[in-house]
Write a structure and sequence with these properties.
With 241 residues, the chain is of the alpha/beta class. Helix content is 32%, strand content 18%. The protein has helices at 29-39, 92-106, 123-133, 157-162, 172-178, 193-198, 203-224; strands at 10-19, 63-76, 79-88, 113-116, 154-156, 235-237.
């Protein structure tokens, strides 16, 4: 499976997002009214718009990107390594600009693919929307308007696992478990990112969590290709690629 794709032609990635404001009471009037309308579709019995505001981070219109972690596979002297790098911080535009610069640099390779778990539904469109909101020009790899399906350079490990079964959803953690890959959820999980960012102010913990997800996506991709997993010694941090 996926034998036609070289690992060195794949940029593995994951993003972490949070609500745009620390809490519902911090919302400006206009955005509060808009969130109240949005919340009608996600509140359960007895819940108010404020009760579900912690979920605002999953919507690009109400959230922001605080971390983008990427992984690149390189082979040197017969040994492969996954090099990890993260762009993170409170300044969302700076985070997006850092990633955009990398993407433009790497996109000189026309065969480059972007790979994430549930990336087609979340990571890729979220980043593109937030870039536009921040007044940025989209990198060519994210500017897919008008492209034919086979021209879009997106790989999605969740979609690949579906094998055409559109109703099937599999979390990254579950897919890692069935392939006997160490779990990335040993510190925090997605539901705790906003609290870790706003209350604990522990961005470093979020970055570690995000990079573990990138490693897990890469390991799953290797399993799809029928190749052995990367060892700890084959995973390194990088300041540049």
């Amino acid at each position: 499976m996926l034998d036609h794709i070289s690992l060195e032609k794949v940029l593995f990635l994951d993003i972490e997002t949070v609500p745009h404001y620390p809490g519902f009471d911090d919302l400006p009037d206009r955005e509060r009214k808009l969130w109240e309308k949005k919340a009608r579709y996600i509140t359960g019995e007895g819940e108010s718009p404020g009760d579900v505001y912690e979920r605002a981070g999953i919507y690009a219109e109400f959230g922001k990107v605080i971390c983008i972690s990427v992984g690149v596979y390189r082979k040197r002297e017969g040994k492969g390594t996954l090099r990890l790098k993260s762009y993170s911080g409170e300044d969302e535009k700076a985070v997006l600009q850092g990633f955009s610069a990398l993407l433009n640099q790497m996109a000189r390779d026309q065969d480059l693919n972007l790979c994430a778990h549930n990336g087609k539904e979340f990571d890729f469109p979220y980043m593109a929307r937030r870039m536009l909101i921040n007044g940025m020009k989209l990198p060519a790899k994210l500017d897919v308007a008008g492209k034919k399906p086979w021209e879009v350079p997106f790989l999605d490990t969740m979609e690949l696992w579906k094998f055409g079964d559109y109703k099937h959803y599999t979390s990254l953690d579950l897919l890692a478990a069935v392939f006997d890959i160490p779990t990335p959820k040993d510190d925090i999980d997605g539901s705790q990112v906003a609290e870790t960012f706003y209350r604990e102010k522990n961005l470093e913990k979020i970055v570690r969590y995000c990079e573990k997800d990138v490693l897990t996506v890469a390991q799953i991709f290797l399993r799809f290709q029928g190749k052995p997993l990367l060892s700890e010694e084959q995973v390194t941090s990088a300041t540049e690629f």
